[in-house]
Write a structure and sequence with these properties.
This protein has 109 residues and is α/β, with parallel strands linked by helices. A 5-stranded mixed β-sheet has the order 1-3-2-4-5, with helices on both faces. Helix 2 links the parallel strand 2 and strand 3. The longest helix has 17 residues. It is globular.
Amino acid sequence: MSLLEITDAEFEQETQGQTKPVLVYFWASWCGPCRLMAPAIQAIAKDYGDRLKVLKLEVDPNPTAVAQCKVEGVPALRLFKNNELVMAHEGAIAKPKLLELLKQELDFI
């Protein structure tokens, strides 16, 4: 499964009641670090898409999800497992470090 771009209207439906964990990547078009992280997020969606749902949400047009997840800066990541927020990270992060963070919460990485 590939990276799915969502909006506020789809946030609840795409993150809650899912059978697999959900990683939400919050980004902005004006954010340089977001552009640096984008390839790592896409690679994770490609490599683990059968076991992990990866969503991309632009912060400026989607203030409701941003407020709900308490996102204070971009890039930001939120990992949901069994409808609960289990990991939150803000700021750019290299792919190896991102995989390490995910590994702490997911047994298949």
